[in-house]
Amino acid sequence: MVRTYGPDLAALCRAGTALLPDIAGLGLSAGHIAGSPPAGSTPRTRFSSDPSGSRLESAQYTLDEGPCRDAAASRAPVLAADLTGASWTRRWPRFTPAALRAGIKAVYALPLHAGGVRHDGAVDLYHHAPGRLDGSAVERSAVAFAAAVTELLTLERLELDFAEAFAAGRLGDTVLDMAAGKPVSGPAALVSDIPGLPLARWFDRSTLAIVRRQVAALSAGHGLTHAAGHGWVLAVHEAMTNAVWHGGGHGQLLLWRRDGRLWCEISDHGPGIGHTAEPGCRPDPRGGRAERRGLWLIQRACTSLDITTDTTGSRLLLSYRLQHPQSS
């Protein structure tokens, strides 16, 4: 098993290439979070396993057509099982001949989304022979790989060095294992020593208490009073509990300090939150759903709460303004 740690997209893509042995090549084009790119920006090639794949990745944006562009625009996988078919030439009249000249007969493009967050771009898997991907082990691994790429792109967006936190948080688990939905190891695998910021942790039901204690200790060490710290830690714990019970059984926590606030991002790969609060509003705790009451409690305890959710998962971004912040 190829292991990779930290927000290193090239290392992750090399691992993906090794873990998907049936593919002829792998390409990744990625840009900003979907829906909020700077004007005029487009995804760019971030990785290609070989020169031929690099040319095909770049050609899709030069030609303004291709599976990566379609997957990013539609937010759905594009599975071209046989590029020799006339329908694909009609769909991509310039990209398809270029792919066939490079010896590519099939391509599968997977959009970049995980935990309710989407990035413009896609992962492209190239094949020398026609064939379908649906329902195969390769498809499941490919979907897990695309989710893992999205998680690392999200860390890049935070502009923080999470490499050391990643290594400490995973403790031997691979990025692909977690993205595939395998639970983290039990409590014995999570060290009890209090780490520093930034903090990255993957949690399930068995590790909630340990992660909560680490968040509490770090929060106290950064100036939160007992009363304020209790509310903040309760909010973080509630968000993690929601991820476990409603988001697929496990989730990812990132904790850091910036601009006089503590920030915590919790994401999962569940079915999404059915009701979210609009900015400035509070979910009604009388709605009857434990999940909704949990969001109401979180908002009461935090300075801000931002929710991103869809059918691929949810992301909660919490912050708490420090009364006497240390230099961030």
Q: In terms of topology, how is this protein built?
A:
Elements: H1 9-19, E1 25-33, E2 44-48, H2 51-62, H3 67-74, E3 78-80, H4 86-91, H5 95-101, E4 106-114, E5 117-127, H6 137-158, H7 163-170, H8 175-179, E6 199-204, H9 208-220, H10 226-246, E7 250-258, E8 261-268, H11 290-301, E9 304-310, E10 313-321
Antiparallel strand pairs: 1-2, 1-5, 3-4, 4-5, 6-7, 7-8, 8-10, 9-10
Helix pairs in contact: 1-6, 9-10, 10-11
Describe the structure.
The structure is a single chain. The protein has 328 residues and is an alpha+beta fold. It has two domains: 9-156, 2-Layer Sandwich (Beta-Lactamase), CATH 3.30.450; 183-321, Heat Shock Protein 90, CATH 3.30.565.10. The chain is 38% helix and 23% strand. It has helices spanning 9-19, 51-62, 67-74, 86-91, 95-101, 137-158, 163-170, 175-179, 208-220, 226-246, 290-301; strands at residues 25-33, 44-48, 78-80, 106-114, 117-127, 199-204, 250-258, 261-268, 304-310, 313-321. The strands form two sheets. Strands 2-1-5-4-3 form a five-stranded antiparallel β-sheet. A five-stranded antiparallel β-sheet has the order 6-7-8-10-9. β4 and β5 form a beta hairpin. α1 packs antiparallel against α6 (137-158), α9 runs antiparallel to α10 and α10 packs antiparallel against α11. It starts with 8 loop residues before the first helix and ends in a 7-residue tail after the last strand. Mean pLDDT is 76; it is low at 1-6, 35-40, 169-193 and 275-288.
